[in-house]
Structures are given as structure tokens and as C-alpha cells.
């Protein structure tokens, strides 16, 4: 009997969105104990996302939420992608929803922060299901921190350090894709959440320091890479814009 894994995915409208979410939805179809908490960065939920989860037959184990990033924190096209925190508003909205949900459905479950553009192996969720109550599981992440793999250093089944080179002085120098949290830690720490006023690269440390310590981390799949921090290139839309100027409809109209 596997625990439910609540996977929190912030997502926002852009040309690659449907491709990203289609790829993710097919991972969900293969992993029955995953529950998808999608949080759109928008004033309301969209037909695109709703139709996509319906077509993937995931509506029974999915909730569609929305939480718009305040304009002063929103990345613009000209900002470098790391200059502002991403996903703060959305992940906090999801945590609110999960706290209510687990109050009514007690039992062991797990919370994972799952970006819409990373690459996930279904095996990751097998491993994640081993996370114990009141603990945080950690594992290697591929293609992040300007390395092939960033990973916890494990001795005698304990995390004794991390191999990160970028800002290794962080309390938890790992990527968002590299850990998941037993949901009872969110009940035990009812105010734990993400914050905007946090230095670049410290979002992971921010949430983790509120629910655990390095000594309590549970190493998982220590010798495997089961998730990659891939990033999708923004597609060129020059010809789409030309079509628009001629008064023609967008090329994906009605698809
Ligand atoms: N995201 C969002 N609104 C934004 C930018 C990003 O909801 O304005 C989401 C995005 O879809 C992803 C997560 O936040 O699921 C992390 O963003 P991104 O993948 O761009 O960050 P990176 O991987 O580069 O740190
Ligand atoms: Mn990403």
C-alpha cells in the first residue's frame, strides 16, 4: 500500500506549456499513487489545462488551482530567468490546499515540488514512496548547478554532505527536484511556506529549514539519477507574429 504523493506543479501560459504538461501527464498515467496539484499562475484556471487532464484521464486524481504571481515579482521577458523567485505564490496555494486535504484524509502521504519542465523517471516515485513519516527524502538530480549531477553524499545510510559547488554554504544546497517531504511535517509545522524575501538559490533551504534538519534527511536512490533539471528553450514565434500582422488567425487555432 503506497502513500499518496501530492505533486505540486506551478505552471504558466506560454507556447511550450501544452507540450510540457502533456509530457508530465503521461508520467502521471504510469504512476497510480501520484495526485497532481496543478497551480496556474493566472487569475483563473484555464480550459487548456482542464482539457489536458481530462484527455489524460487524470481528473479523478488531480486538482486545478490558480494563484497569480504579484506583478512586482513576475519575471518579464527581459529579466534573466534566475533574477526573481518562481513558483512561490503557486506552491504556497498548493500547500494550503494539501493541509486541508490531509486533515480530512489522515494517513501517510508525501509532498513533492514538481516543475512542469523537468524530466522524471517513473522509478523516482517508486523510491519516493519509501519516505518515512516525519522525514524528508533526498536524492541526486541530473543537469543542475552546472554539473552532470548534484547529489547528497551518503555514508552508512546518513546524509553527511552534498557535492554542490554553487553556493555550497546554503543550509540545504540542493534543487527543488531533489527532495520530497512527508506531509505530516506540514501539519507539525503549520506556518511552513515559501517566501519572496529570500536570496537567489535559497528557496529550497527556506522550506526545508522550516520542517527538518540536515541530520534527519533520509537518503533515497543515492546511486541513481531519476530526475533531470531540464529546461525548455523558448520557441521562436516570429512567423506567428507575421501571420497576426496580416490579420490571419494563429496557426494553432482550434487544436
Ligand atoms: N512558473 C510560473 N510562473 C512564472 C515562471 C515559472 O508558474 O512566471 C513555474 C514554471 O512553470 C515551473 C516553476 O514555476 O513549473 C519553476 O519555473 P522554471 O522552470 O522557469 O524555473 P527554473 O527551473 O529555471 O528554476
Ligand atoms: Mn524548470
UniProtKB/TrEMBL annotation:
Family under the similarity heading: Belongs to the glycosyltransferase 43 family.
Annotated GO MF terms: galactosylgalactosylxylosylprotein 3-beta-glucuronosyltransferase activity; metal ion binding
Cofactor list: Mn(2+)
Catalyzed chemical reaction(s): 3-O-(beta-D-galactosyl-(1->3)-beta-D-galactosyl-(1->4)-beta-D-xylosyl)-L-seryl-[protein] + UDP-alpha-D-glucuronate = 3-O-(beta-D-GlcA-(1->3)-beta-D-Gal-(1->3)-beta-D-Gal-(1->4)-beta-D-Xyl)-L-seryl-[protein] + UDP + H(+)
Residues of the full protein shown: 62 to 316 of 318
Active-site residues annotated for this sequence: 204 (proton donor/acceptor)
Cellular compartments annotated: Golgi apparatus membrane
Organism: Polypedilum vanderplanki (Sleeping chironomid midge)
List of residues binding Mn(2+): 117
Keywords for the protein's UniProt record, in alphabetical order: Glycoprotein, Golgi apparatus, Manganese, Membrane, Metal-binding, Signal-anchor, Transferase, Transmembrane, Transmembrane helix
Site (Interaction with galactose moiety of substrate glycoprotein): 150, 239
GO biological process: carbohydrate metabolic process; chondroitin sulfate proteoglycan biosynthetic process
Protein name: Galactosylgalactosylxylosylprotein 3-beta-glucuronosyltransferase
Lineage: superkingdom: Eukaryota
Bilayer topology annotation: Single-pass type II membrane protein
GO cellular component, one term: Golgi membrane
Binding of UDP-alpha-D-glucuronate, residues: 10-12, 41, 86, 91, 115-117, 229-231
This protein's pathway: Protein modification; protein glycosylation
UniProt EC number: 2.4.1.135
Record carries keyword Cell wall biogenesis/degradation: no
Major site of localization recorded for this protein: Golgi
Keyword Transcription regulation: no
